[in-house]
Every structure is written in structure tokens, then in C-alpha cells.
Design goal:
By secondary structure, this protein is of the alpha+beta class. It has one domain: Winged helix-like DNA-binding domain superfamily/Winged helix DNA-binding domain (Arc Repressor Mutant, subunit A, Orthogonal Bundle). The protein is built from seven helices and three strands. β2 and β3 form a beta hairpin. The longest helix has 21 residues. It comes from Streptomyces thermoviolaceus subsp. thermoviolaceus. Keywords: Cytoplasm, DNA-binding, Transcription, Transcription regulation. It is found in: Cytoplasm. This is MarR family transcriptional regulator.
Amino acid sequence: MLLDDQLCFALYAASRAVTARYRPLLDELDLTYPQYLVMLVLWDRGAASVRDLGTALQLESSTLSPLIKRLEAAGLVIRRRHPDDERSVVVSLTDAGRALQDRARRVPPAMADAMGLTPEQHRTAKALLRRLTANVTGADTGTG
């Protein structure tokens, strides 16, 4: 029962360290880490329903909605009811939200440098973490 023998602590410490390393980079963008994750999905997809954002980010609507509201207040996104389903809310980027992507492009390489992993180590770490998540949640990621 030693702390250093616990995988959960290694994951916790790594998560805190990585998130802390993101903070100064994201401060320059006026984004929190969870807001950055929302923006990554929107930069990739252009628009997404709140449900699809929640699925992609593995977040509940009760956690996601305040993030989206703050992004909307900052002028980066806009929320609209889906025209075919009034219960569904679609989140889209504003011009300012799209423009922020150019400034954010330096974040991934800066984080890759900070992590100090080879490309192969990076792929292996990602695959192992995805497998661990799938095993713990009972989901199948199809990553083998």
C-alpha cells in the first residue's frame, strides 16, 4: 500500500503537472484548460451540439454548459437551438473563435516539447491511456 506503487497516483500527478504546464500557454489565450478542450472540438468540427461536445469530451451537460456560457460571453462561440430539434443546442464558432485558432496553434508543439517524449513514446502513452480509460469505463475504443 505504498503511494509510489499506486498507478492512480502516477496518473493524478501526471494530470496535474500537464494541466499546470498548459496554464501559462492558455492564459495568453484567455482560456481555461476545459475551455481549450471545447475549442479544440469546435475548431475540428466547426459546430457541434452540446450532446456531441459532451460525448467528445466525456463531460456531463451540467459541467459543459457553464463552460460554453463563458465562451459565449467572451465572444468566441454562439449557442442556437437546432432548427429541427428545439431540445438540441448547437454551438458554433464566432469569427473571434475561429481567429483564436491561429494563436492556439503554438500550444501543441510547446506541450510536446515540455513532455519530452519521442513520437513513438507519445503514441504509446496515448494508446495506453485510451485503453485504460476504456477498460475502466467499460467502453471499447477500438484501439486494441
